[in-house]
Design goal:
heterodimer, A: about 110 residues, alpha+beta, 4-stranded antiparallel sheet, 4 strands, B: about 525 residues, mainly alpha, 11 helices, about 90% helix, elongated
Chain lengths: ~110, ~525
């Protein structure tokens, strides 16, 4: 691998690392607080029935408009979510971890 | 010399010392390779942990781990370990602990997994470069700060605040500071070691070169000493040979000199004897020559007087011949005049004979006219007869004419006989004149021969006169030369006496030279001459 005329590899690796860390931080947990982000505005209203149908508990509104924080099972939520209609992310406190504990999902 | 070689050998770097000059680069290259291996091993262990813990995050671990490991792996495979390659490793040191924290999400040990950030940063020390540590530090700080900015509650749920983030950042910064100082010092140590090793290597090479030069110089000195000794021996031997050769040469030269001098002296003696004999003979010859020269001088004087008298007689004869020549010339002129007159007489006679012939021609014409006149007179007589009386007078005239014609014919015959007599006389005169002319020609020819002979005689007499004069002069010169010869004969006699005396002196000198040569040759043959 030869040297590039200008140091593009380091910024590229930095971008990959930052995206990787963010991806890891935002990856939804198997069970726990999950942030549901609707891709369409009209899907926001359907997030609650979707969460309830997946057996998740509603925790509150998310940081983004129309988003919803639920406490539930990622696999069950994904089975209810159509492709790319709703994005599942890790809810707050998932990045570095703490001593907060959520209740058992319904 | 042996101690110097041993000392240099003790300080001589091991053959493997040269690669240690690149130990920093080697460590960095191996560090890059090690981190590439750590990346994949860590990914494998994380996947194993995922399987054990049943966290179900194998997909993000695999994807992110693969993406992060691509760069360092390619660098390791390419053998690159430059600053760019080393800096890329910093991403792995930041992401792999993050993947561990992500794997342990919700696990009680998740917070403990943060210690592996420090482990990863510490492990970057093997690269001996502060850049990957700074890169990992910045990535970690950006990770936390960006999450703090993007979702503060995500970083530390419930208790998330800037102070706690700064607390972590300070710890990471301190870690970076310590590790950076360590790597800088480590790099300096390596560079110093490399410089010291390079200097040591150069000094060792210089010492080895000096040793080689010293050994070469000592070898050259030994060779020079051996050459000098050999040269001294050769010089001594050569001196001995030269002395012997010189002695032999001197003896040879002395013998040769003695032989040559002896032969020369012998030749001088013989030549002296011959010279003395020749001088005596020369003296006798010169005395007789002098006497004969005196006699010749006297004879030459008499010959000169006789020659002078002959010359005087020849001059008298020459004057007589000159007189004869003048008379012969005058006779020749007169003969030529007579000859020319005779020629003119012959021409006159010839002209007279020609006139006689012309007169005979005229006589023939007269006889022809007379015949015609007679014929006319005859015709006139006939015609007069025919005329009768009337022609009687005419017949008388014709008879007269006829008579005249007959007289004319007779006169012509007499003239013809006279002319014949004249022609005979002219012819006789012409013959006589021709004989006279021939006689005059012969006289003239004889006179010319006499003149030519006299002229030749005159030239001969003049030549004889000149030769007589030169002979007289030559006789005088011969008389003087003979006198000189007589004088020279006297001198030759005295010189012969001197030569006889000089030959005697030369004989004495030759004997002295022979004795001196004997002494000189004896000296050359002695050892003193050789020692000199």
């Amino acid at each position: 691998m030869r040297r590039t005329p200008f140091p593009i590899l380091i910024p590229l690796q930095a971008v990959v690392a930052v995206l990787a860390v963010l991806g890891l931080a935002l990856w939804p947990p198997a069970k726990g607080a999950i942030l549901l982000i609707p891709m369409l505005q009209n899907n926001a209203a359907s997030l609650v029935p979707l969460a309830r149908a997946s057996g998740a508990l509603l925790v509150g509104n998310g940081p983004l408009p129309g988003s919803l924080v639920v406490l539930g099972d990622r696999a069950r939520l994904l089975r209810r979510v159509r492709a790319w209609n709703v994005i599942l992310l890790s809810a707050p406190a998932a990045g570095c971890g703490d001593d907060r504990r959520f209740g058992t999902p319904a | 010399m042996t101690r110097l070689s041993a000392t240099l050998a003790r300080f001589r770097p091991h053959p493997s010392a040269q690669p240690t000059l690149d130990s920093l680069e080697t460590m960095r290259r191996r560090g890059v390779q090690l981190w590439a291996l750590i990346g994949w091993v860590s990914l494998a262990l994380l996947l194993v942990g995922n399987a054990i813990l049943h966290t179900g995050v194998w997909l993000p671990l695999l994807v992110i781990g693969t993406l992060v490991n691509i760069g360092p792996t390619m660098m390791a495979l390419a053998g690159r370990h430059d600053s760019e390659a080393r800096t890329l490793i910093g991403a792995s040191a930041a992401v792999i602990p993050a993947m561990l924290v992500f794997l342990l999400k919700g696990h009680p040990w998740q917070m403990d997994a943060h210690m592996y950030f420090f482990v990863g940063m510490a492990a970057l020390v093997v690269l001996a470069d502060w850049r990957p540590i700074a890169f990992a530090t910045v990535l970690t700080a950006c990770h936390h700060i960006s999450l703090e900015w993007f979702a503060p509650e995500w970083v530390f749920s419930g208790t998330g605040n800037v102070g706690r983030i700064l607390f972590h950042v300070v710890a990471v910064g301190l870690q970076f500071g310590v590790l950076a100082a360590l790597t800088v010092q480590l790099e300096r140590l390596f560079l110093g070691q490399q410089a010291a090793l390079r200097r040591s290597h150069e000094l060792t090479e210089a010492a080895e070169e000096g040793q080689r030069q010293t050994e070469r110089a000592m070898e050259l000195a030994r060779l020079a000493e051996a050459d000098a000794a050999r040269e001294r021996r050769e010089r001594a031997e050569q001196a001995t040979r030269i002395a012997q050769a010189r002695r032999a040469e001197l003896v040879g030269i002395a013998n040769e000199f003695e032989r040559s001098v002896t032969s020369v002296i012998k030749a001088i003696g013989e030549a002296t004897e011959r010279l003395e004999q020749a001088a005596v003979q020369l003296e006798d010859i010169t005395q007789s020559t002098t006497a004969e020269a005196d006699q010749v001088a006297a004879g030459a004087g008499r010959a000169a007087s006789d020659i002078a008298q002959v010359a005087s007689s020849i001059r008298t004869l020459s004057e007589s011949v000159q007189t004869i020549a003048i008379a012969a010339d005058r006779q020749s002129v007169l003969t030529e005049t007579a000859s020319s007159e005779a020629k003119r007489s012959v021409q006159t006679v010839a002209m007279l004979e020609e006139h006689a012939v012309q007169i005979e021609g005229f006589l023939a014409d007269i006889r022809k006219i007379a015949a015609q006149t007679n014929l006319l007179a005859l015709n006139a007589t006939i015609e007069a007869a025919r005329a009768g009386d009337a022609g009687r007078g005419f017949a008388v005239v014709a008879g007269e004419v006829k008579t005249l014609s007959a007289d004319t014919t007779r006169a012509s015959d007499r003239i013809g006989s006279l002319i014949s007599g004249i022609r005979e006389g002219v012819a006789d005169t012409s013959d006589k004149l021709r004989s006279v002319n021939g006689a005059i020609g012969q006289v003239s020819l004889a006179a010319s021969g006499i003149a030519t002979a006299v002229a030749e005689q005159r030239h001969t007499a003049q030549d004889v006169d000149a030769c007589a004069a030169r002979a007289a002069t030559t006789a005088d010169e011969v008389e003087r030369r003979i006198a000189d010869v007589a004088h020279a004969g006297g001198k030759a006699t005295s010189l012969s006496a001197s030569v006889t005396r000089s030959a005697a002196d030369l004989s004495v000198s030759a004997r002295d030279l022979l004795s001196s040569t004997d002494r000189f040759v004896s000296f050359l043959q002695s050892d003193h001459a050789v020692a000199a």
